[in-house]
Amino acid sequence: MKKLLLLAILFAHSASATDGSLFDCRQIEGTEERVSCYDRIVDSQLPVRQSKKEVVENTRVDGSTGEDAPPSVPDALSLFGKQDAEAKRMVQKSLAIKEIDQIKATVSSVKRSAYKKLTVTLDNGQVWQQLDNEPLPLRTGDLITVRLAKLGSYLLKKQSGSGSIRVKRLN
Q1: Interatomic CA distance for residues 84 and 79, integer angstroms
Q2: CA gap 94, 74 in Å, rounded
Q3: DSSP labels for 5-41?
Q4: What is the pTM of this model?
Q5: How far is residue 67's CA from residue 86's CA, in Å, rounded to a whole number?
Q6: Residues with Cβ within 8 Å of residue 167, at least 6 apart in sequence
Q7: What is the pLDDT of residues 125-167, one digit of tens each?
Q8: Could you tell me if 118 and 165 are in contact, meaning their C-beta atoms sit under 8 angstroms apart?
Q9: Beta carbons of 107 and 145 less than 8 angstroms apart
Q10: Tell me: the pLDDT tens digits for 50-73?
Q11: What stretches of the chain show up as alpha helix (H) in DSSP?
């Protein structure tokens, strides 16, 4: 929760710091230079820039992307008392972070605990720990999918098999 608040506050501060720069861009005579000045400011404020393919995929029939009106950035007062999941959604919405329901990755390492539970490190740096006692033979180099399951839990499945294990993210 504290990380989400800090992220929201930092984003709000950096957005307000560029207001003067927008007026500086407006003073530029040449159209191309003025537009590139605006683009630099906007690009510096976006947490993740969408690819052209994502913009095309998210474009509606009427030609809009559904992101015409920028959402307001939540402040500490609006987040106070909210549950972690609700606060997370508010911050994701305000920063225009697209929510995903699964990832695909390659296993970088697998460790087995004394209780035969796996700790799986992925090529993207994420570390997942097994919660249940289901067997799943994993090796370095295996392709896996981690997907969102019911009630906020996660399932890790080998792409070449049918079994899955319930996991939680450690980092």
Answers
A1: 9
A2: 7
A3: HHHHHHHHHHHHHTHHHHHHHHT--SHHHHHHHHHHH
A4: 0.52
A5: 20
A6: 120, 128, 129, 130, 131, 146, 154, 155, 156
A7: 999 999 999 999 999 999 999 999 988 889 999 998 888 999 9
A8: yes
A9: no
A10: 544 454 455 455 455 555 555 577
A11: 2-17, 19-26, 31-45, 52-58, 76-79, 84-94
